[in-house]
Amino acid sequence: MGFLDFLVKPLGQILYFIYTTVAFRNYGLAIIIFTFIVKLILLPLTIKQYRSTAKMQEIQPLIQDIQRRYKNDKEKMNQELMKLYQEHKFNPAGGCLPLLIQLPIIFSLYYAINQPLRFLLNKTPEQIEKLIEYVTQKVGQVAISASREIGVINYFNEHISEIANVSDILKPEELINLNFLGINLGLVPKISTDLLFGPQSSIYLPLLIIPILAVATTYISSKIMAPKTDSGNKGGSSTTNSTQNMMLLLGPVMTLIFSFQLPAGVVLYWIASNVFQILQQLYINKYVMRKKEVKAK
Length: 297
Fold this sequence. Notes:
By secondary structure, the protein is an all-alpha fold. It contains 13 helices and 2 strands; from the N terminus they run ααααααααββααααα. The chain has helices at 5-20, 27-41, 43-69, 74-87, 97-114, 116-119, 125-139, 148-158, 193-197, 201-204, 209-225, 237-259, 264-296, and strands at residues 179-180, 183-184. Strands 1-2 form a two-stranded antiparallel ribbon. It starts with a helix and ends with a helix.
């Protein structure tokens, strides 16, 4: 994973700085504020994405006409579409840029959240191994096998008095409280009857809220961002609509899969990002698009 260290380390330090200052040591709030900062930095690219989407809506009737005229000649259709894109200075991939830039951030956030001792608290590999050995002797390897560093953090949060035994490595004021509204953001949601209805149900049942919110906000965000097509048009419109419907479903499905693979803190970032995107797009639709339509008249 070393190739991402140059990005993970500063992001981890920024997240921890937010946690200890403006977030008042609230881990969930720190991730939400972190998301807000990232979205502001990406705002110019988001505006570019919006313009690309608006341009797509503008030339949609022309695209549908080409698709209808050359539906039996795919090569000619592609040539005419490329010519149309060049004439209107439209890049079909322009709307994907913000997402492509967010992917390294999500991967980096995954490692930062999964390895808080290394990337948030700046502990050396030797110090981390000593802490893991100490906790392993107390509770056993299985108890912290999901994420050894998160297991260490959780253990000392639950046994704060024992931190005196490792005070040369870890100080009480360095501890990170991973809980947010009763949800441990360091854990990965699981669908397991043993976990959901067993002794650990109070820990793993609340975690299911995270995938539900992630799927819901992804769908709403995709729905709002989807280009509007003229349903009265024939020919290529059915192909366009079916593609859009597939994309509306693909996003939430992929989100659901990843929600059960990543720590809840990473998925919270995605939820906060979706909410920010929804509010931003509602503002654009209500004020920017309306002004544009008035000027057009």
